[in-house]
Specification:
Blueprint lengths: L7 E5 H14 L5 E4 L1 H5 L3 H10 L4 E4 L2 H9 L5 E4 L8 H6 L4 E3 L2 H9 L7 E5 L14 H10 L4 E6 L12 H15 L10 E3 L3 H6 L8 E3 L26 E6 L2 E4 L5 E2 L5 E2 L5 E5 L16 E4 L2 E6 L7 E4 L10 E5 L8 H8 L3 H7 L6 E5 L2 E2 L7
Parallel strand pairs: 1-19, 2-3, 2-9, 3-4, 5-6, 6-7, 7-8
Antiparallel strand pairs: 1-10, 10-18, 11-14, 12-13, 14-17, 15-16, 16-17, 19-20
Helix pairs in contact: 10-11
Length: about 375
């Protein structure tokens, strides 16, 4: 039985399909690793993985092992790389489910070498070229090569790093990271049994901005769902303007009131109404992952016109001032997405004091996801 809730997230698979093929066509080898972490940035990891598999995609990435196991349980048979560091107790599952793992330090590599099924593990070495989170440091190279020479049974599948500010088009930092990564790239393939080591450096922004960053494939996450926010905005990569927003968040008015002058709205009484002001209530709140910070700052769209959110966002409801405009219970309201003329995630993020990535990922599972293709509901993409 489908959801009866009037607040829904719509995922337009036709837009996802176009984004995917545009991005794939941009890579010099037409190869992408599609990143589906955080429930595919809130878009639904399993349905999206199934849809992309239908497009021929066979290379996926997630953040933690449990996400990879969820994909395997859902029947996803392609390659899956976990980008986060493994734990020793997880290595058996990595081997059993043919999940590729990240080795970000000598400590993790020693765990792998000591594992009884080390030969059944497929490794990607993560090197830190300037992000500063996880990854092997240059000082570890001698010890790394010694361990590899002493463990010829290890299966080294890839070598990768990650850009720190690829969206900043005026920054030289990407080129500095590229130079550091190329040094690592010369190191591992030089070892006799590692001729087939795959090199991957680009995230979404790196893919769009420079072919020198492409290597064997690009790890694409956010650009599947939405255009990126590049700085400076006057220098956008051409393809970025063609990418489409995949997610739309909608609700319906649950109550309409005409208020008297001086009456207040919401917890802490942070908004005071004018005479005859129309207040509409919507059944969505921070319990759904709609940011509390949007109170008295955010906007919604009704019949193509923007209206402000007034009062504090509650756990389950928000209130919107319609001024003196009329509305009825059941009228549809747009809170996010909606294509041209809609409400971009980057704008919602700016109101909430965050970024567009978090806007998508923050909307939780209490809001049902409805999958469409060219506006028509799609059957056969259950979430589990």
């Amino acid at each position: 039985m489908g959801s009866t809730r009037s607040t829904q997230v719509e995922i337009e698979l036709a837009s996802l399909e176009r984004n995917y093929h545009r991005l794939r066509g941009t890579h010099r080898r037409r190869r992408l690793m599609t990143v589906l972490k955080a429930d595919a940035y809130g878009h639904g990891m399993v349905p999206v993985a199934r849809f992309l598999a239908e497009q021929g995609q066979r290379l996926f990435a997630v953040a933690v092992l449990e996400e990879a196991l969820t994909l395997r349980r859902a029947g996803i048979q392609g390659r899956i790389l976990v980008l986060g560091p493994p734990e020793p107790r997880e290595l058996e599952a990595y081997a059993a489910q043919r999940i590729e793992l990240t080795v970000p330090s000598l400590v993790h590599l020693r765990w792998v070498v000591q594992h009884p099924d080390a030969a059944g593990l497929e490794l990607h070495f993560k090197c830190d070229t300037g992000m500063g989170r996880i990854g092997l440091q240059p000082a570890a190279t001698d010890a790394l090569l010694k361990i590899l020479d002493d463990a010829p049974h290890l299966r080294v599948r890839g070598l990768y790093s990650h850009f720190a500010e690829a969206e900043r088009l005026d920054s030289p930092y990407c080129d500095a990271q590229l130079a550091a990564f190329e040094e690592w790239g010369r190191l591992l393939p030089a070892r006799g049994r590692n001729e087939a080591v795959e090199l991957h450096l680009s995230n979404s922004a790196g893919l769009l901005r420079d072919g020198r960053y492409h290597f064997d494939y690009a790890r694409v996450g956010f650009a599947l769902w939405s255009p990126l926010v590049f700085v400076p905005q006057a220098s956008q990569p051409p393809l970025n303007g063609e990418l489409e927003a995949v997610m739309t968040l909608k609700s319906r008015i649950s109550l309409v009131k005409r208020m008297r002058a001086g009456t207040t709205v919401g917890y802490s009484r942070t908004y005071r109404c004018g005479e005859g002001e129309v207040i509409a209530t919507l059944p969505i709140g921070y319990g759904d992952g709609y940011f509390r910070a949007l109170g008295n700052r955010g906007q919604v769209s009704l019949r193509g016109r923007r209206y402000p959110i007034v009062g504090n966002v509650s756990m389950d409801q928000i209130t919107v001032s319609l001024g003196h405009d009329e509305a009825e219970v059941g009228d549809e309201v747009l809170l996010l997405g909606g294509g041209r003329g809609g409400i971009p995630a980057a704008e919602v993020g700016s109101w909430a004091g965050t970024i567009d990535y978090e806007v998508f990922a923050h909307l939780n599972g209490r809001i049902p996801r409805i999958y469409l293709y060219d506006g028509k509901p799609v059957a056969g993409l259950p979430s589990e």
